[in-house]
UniProtKB/TrEMBL annotation, chain A:
Domain Histidine kinase: 588-671
PANTHER family in UniProt: NITRATE/NITRITE SENSOR PROTEIN NARX-RELATED (PTHR24421), NITRATE_NITRITE SENSOR PROTEIN NARQ (PTHR24421:SF10)
TM annotation in the entry: 29-47, 101-125, 137-165, 171-186, 198-216, 228-255, 267-288
PROSITE patterns cross-referenced by the UniProt entry: HIS_KIN
Broad EC category: transferase
Catalytic activity: ATP + protein L-histidine = ADP + protein N-phospho-L-histidine
CDD domains per the UniProt record, alphabetical: HATPase_UhpB-NarQ-NarX-like
Enzyme Commission no: 2.7.13.3
Name of this protein: histidine kinase
Automatic annotation (TrEMBL), chain B:
Annotated Response regulatory domain residues: 11-132
Gene Ontology terms: biological process: phosphorelay signal transduction system; regulation of DNA-templated transcription
Keyword match Endoplasmic reticulum: no
Name by which UniProt lists this protein: Two-component system response regulator, LuxR family protein
SMART domains reported for this sequence: HTH_LUXR (SM00421), REC (SM00448)
Length: 677, 232
């Protein structure tokens, strides 16, 4: 086989050399590039990787024989040019024996090519003979090789022989191959049938194109060697070899139809496909340009060649893309999918966008019928996306849960592949993507939590700023109140007192009785003292500093005009807390009691001070009319909340219309560090 | 060694950090002729020192003195009463708050008085309180009693709520350390009627067994102290 391949290569080289350098025939290069090269290299490539596959051998043989045929033809043409032989079919051929022999060899070669095509097509996909009729028919075909020898001997005209041997056989024989393949498909076991069916269209196409080409060649006989139809024939002539080569190469490596169980670098497959497609493209463009050169001046024909190249370019590009996708399909999809998914991770903050991208990418990448992706769960809203619609009732053929730790963060499930069987690599990709997606969803979850925290922090910051502003405002208001009381109240009273003393002095000078006046002054002074005491108590009750919270609250309760019961847990009575805690608790109670007096219309209030879970709990409950907590935002309540939260406590207000109000503050129990001097 | 009032001037030590008040008080009291001021000091430490040296009959102490400016007067009063049970102490306070009085009477009421500072202006009242504590009795400023009796901060079943209006009046007078006779004069009642109210008050408050001398103000105060804040 190596020898055959090497011989084929040598022939190809020889044919190319003499075809391009010595012959005047313009169609040598297009033909060799467009059909012989693709076929030979495809065969060589497959055979190289699967030397035992009959199909590979046959494809190589086909390529070799095409080379041999081309070499023989070109050699004979060269010889005829050099020696003056005219090997073209003659209406009534009387040829010298040497001519006859050469012609015969050339025709045998051509016929062999056709027979090889038949054998290649008929025995797809594995290349083994399955049925007896196949063997009979295929073996019988070899008998045709006798025709080029026998027919001239029985006196048939050279032209007729040429038609029978070259044109008709090339046109019709591939049809025989396709027909055999159809029969094979019909008789094959159910398990093998899909593979054969998949190849049948290609075989049929090849046969049809051969037929069309044969027909075109028949036309060519009428139109001569240089017509548009000749060009069409050349175009069509190259196509079947290319299509068969490409199909087999693709089938071999992407669907493993030839029993080729090899792991091959996809780039090599793609490279071969690229070579075939581009050889065909160059060949076709050349052929068109050369055809045009017959009719038009050189400049114009060049233009035509360029236009032709441009016209074929989209076809070539499309074929290349197709080849690339087919060759790299799976491999590319693995990286491509991951790359695509990595890109999609940029949108990972939005599961609604991530899910469809993942589904579509997975379906396109693995060529699946349908994919369903569900992301979310474990505290996140669930996003579901489908690429392709699963038939009703169909169970997914693969299902990968998205797990992060023990959290189920969704699931990826998909149906069977659109074509071919699912491979372990496909499942690897599914699993990898599921892991990545789980990570992505986890990230989304983290991001959501983070933004929730950020929002909460922001809200707290805003609330803090507001509360700070309120506290400052309250402080200023309180200062103004004290200032007013000092200036408008106590200072005025003292001024009046001074005036009364002056009056008393005057009376004394006049020798009058000042006893009553002094008594009045003394009473006024008592009044001022009371005012001052009250004011000082309002600023800060000394009892809170001197005796602590319980004493201060009790004392405050005693001065209420309605009954107030004070409960305090025994250990609290002598316990001293940090100054700000005590003040906060005291003002809470005093503010709450003021509110009860102002608004509640309560008959009784209970103040309760207890330890609760390591915190100081202060509760003021009344039996008043209550209020709807949701709608009331009095400044009193806000002030209480500010004061409580300022020392790290929390305030809850429970109130229902008609059922009284309970205001409960839980404050940290910070002990007093030092007594205030 | 209590002396009957009027026979000899009371030997007094004054402790008050404010100079003008201290000297004013001294002159007011010395002007009456009933009091001889042995010493007038500015801090609690000096007070204890002076009491230990001079052993006065009675002491007037400001509640708030250096160095802490909290309740040094009360602490000093306790210390004096503990060391010298015969020396009466009048604590003058600017706080019209009953809790300070409770603090003062924490370990017993005998020989102790809690007066608001402005009583300095009512020399007679002050003198009477000095004589009361010298005699081992107690006085509470009427303002404090007013707060306690007027307070609603007690449970409905508190014994004080069972007292009649007249009994509360009598109790208030008792709290000022007045005798039955003085109360009768003040309320325009006969002495026997007052005695009846006093006895019924003691009965209602459950204090009938306490000896006559002490049970009056001390019992009332002790009771008042415990009632309003206590858990129901």
């Amino acid at each position: 086989m190596h020898l055959v391949a090497a011989g084929g290569g040598a022939c190809l080289l020889w044919a190319t050399l003499i075809g391009t350098t010595q012959l005047e025939n313009r169609y040598v290069s297009p033909w060799i590039l467009g059909s012989v090269v693709p076929c030979f290299f495809a065969g060589l490539f497959i055979w190289w990787h699967a030397p035992n596959s009959p199909v590979a051998r046959r494809l190589l043989l086909l390529g070799v024989w095409l080379s041999v045929a081309a070499a023989v033809r070109h050699t004979t043409t060269l010889l005829s040019q050099e020696l003056g032989w005219d090997l073209r079919p003659q209406p009534a051929g009387v040829l010298v024996p040497l001519d006859q022999v050469l012609l015969m060899i050339s025709r045998v070669c051509n016929l062999t090519v056709s027979i090889l095509v038949v054998r290649l097509l008929a025995l797809l996909p594995d290349g083994h003979v399955l049925f007896r009729h196949e063997r009979r028919v295929l073996n019988a075909l070899w008998g045709l090789l006798a025709l080029p020898v026998l027919l001239p001997c029985v006196g048939m005209s050279d032209l007729t022989v040429y038609y029978v041997v070259a044109y008709h056989s090339e046109a019709w024989l591939p049809g025989v191959g396709a027909a055999l393949l159809v029969v094979r498909c019909l008789r094959a076991r159910a398990a093998d049938r899909p593979d054969i069916t998949a190849l049948l269209p290609f075989a049929a196409l090849g046969a049809a194109v051969f037929l069309a080409r044969g027909s075109a060649r028949l036309f060519r006989a009428w139109h001569g060697e240089h017509g548009a139809l000749y060009f069409v024939g050349a175009l069509l002539g190259a196509l079947p070899y290319v299509s068969i080569s490409v199909t087999l190469l693709y089938a071999a490596f992407c669907h493993r139809l030839l029993g080729v169980d090899i792991v091959l670098r996809r780039s090599a497959v793609y490279g071969s496909l690229w070579l075939i497609i581009n050889s065909w493209y160059v060949g076709m463009a050349l052929a068109l340009g050369l055809t045009a050169g017959l009719y038009f001046p050189v400049g114009l024909s060049l233009l035509v060649a360029v236009v032709a190249a441009a016209l074929f370019q989209p076809v070539r590009a499309r074929l290349n893309t197709l080849a690339e996708r087919r060759a790299f399909g799976r491999r590319l999809s693995r990286f491509g999918l991951l790359v695509q998914f990595s890109a999609a991770l940029e949108h990972a903050y939005d599961l609604d966008r991530l899910a469809p991208r993942l589904a579509t990418g997975l379906r396109d990448g693995l060529n699946l019928r349908w994919v369903r992706v569900r992301l979310g769960g474990a505290g996140l809203p669930v996003s579901t996306a489908e690429a392709g619609r699963p038939p009703p009732g169909e169970r997914p053929s693969a299902q990968y849960p998205l797990l992060y730790g023990d959290d189920a963060l969704g699931v990826i499930e998909y149906g069977p592949k659109a074509a071919g069987r699912r491979t372990p690599e496909d499942d690897d990709i599914g699993q990898t993507l599921a892991r990545s997606a789980a990570l992505a969803v986890h990230n989304v979850r983290l991001a959501a939590e983070l933004s929730a925290h950020a929002r909460e922090t922001q809200r707290q910051a805003v609330e803090l700023a507001a509360s700070r502003a309120r506290i400052v405002h309250a402080q200023d208001t309180e200062r103004r109140r004290i200032e007013r009381r000092l200036h408008d109240g106590i200072q005025q009273e003292l001024v009046a007192l001074v005036a009364k003393l002056a009056l008393a002095r005057n009376r004394l000078h006049r020798g009058g009785d000042i006893d009553a006046a002094l008594t009045e002054v003394q009473d006024d002074a008592y009044h001022v003292i009371d005012d001052l005491r009250e004011l000082a108590h309002g600023i800060h009750p000394p009892i809170l500093t001197d005796q602590g919270l319980v004493a201060a609250v009790t004392s405050c309760a005693r001065r209420m005009p309605i009954p107030v019961t004070v409960h305090s847990a025994e250990p609290l009575t002598d316990e001293r807390f940090a100054l700000d805690i005590e003040e906060s608790a005291f003002y809470l109670v005093s503010e709450a009691l003021t509110n009860v007096l102002k608004h509640a219309g309560a008959g009784h209030v209970t103040v309760r001070m207890t330890h609760a879970d390591g915190r100081l709990q202060v509760e003021v409950a009344d039996d008043g009319k209550g209020f709807p907590t949701a709608t009331t935002h009095g400044s009193g309540l806000t002030g209480m909340r500010d004061r409580t939260e300022a020392v790290g406590g929390e305030l809850t207000i429970t109130s229902r219309a008609g059922h009284g109000t309970v205001i409960r503050a839980r404050l940290p129990e910070r002990a007093r560090e030092e007594t205030r001097a | 060694m209590p002396e009957p009032p009027g026979t000899a001037p009371l030997r007094l030590v004054i402790a008050e950090d404010h100079y003008l008040v201290r000297e004013g008080t001294r002159r007011l009291l010395e002007d009456t002729g009933e009091v001889r001021v042995l010493a007038a000091v500015g801090t609690a430490t000096e007070l204890l020192d002076a009491v230990g040296r001079l052993l006065p009959d009675v002491v007037i102490a400001d509640i708030r003195m250096p160095p802490g400016h909290h309740t040094e007067g009360i602490t000093a009063a306790h210390a004096i009463r503990a060391a010298h049970p015969g020396i009466g102490v009048v604590v003058l306070s600017q706080h019209a708050n009953e809790n300070y009085a409770f603090d003062l009477f924490r370990c017993g009421t005998n020989g102790l008085a809690y007066l608001l500072k402005e009583r300095i202006g009512e020399v007679d009242e002050l003198l009477r309180a000095l004589h009361e504590v010298t005699a081992g009795r107690s006085v509470v400023d009427p303002r404090i009693v007013e707060v306690l009796i007027g307070s609603h901060a007690r449970a409905a079943d508190a014994p004080l709520s069972h007292l009649t209006r007249r009994e509360l009046d009598v109790l208030r007078q008792m709290a000022e350390g007045k005798t039955n006779r003085a109360i009768a004069a003040c309320l325009n009642l006969s002495e026997s009627t007052v005695e009846k109210h006093v006895n019924s008050t003691f009965a209602k408050l459950g204090l009938a067994e306490i000896p006559q001398l002490h049970r009056r103000v001390s019992a009332v105060l002790a009771y008042l102290r415990h009632t309003p804040a206590g858990p129901v």
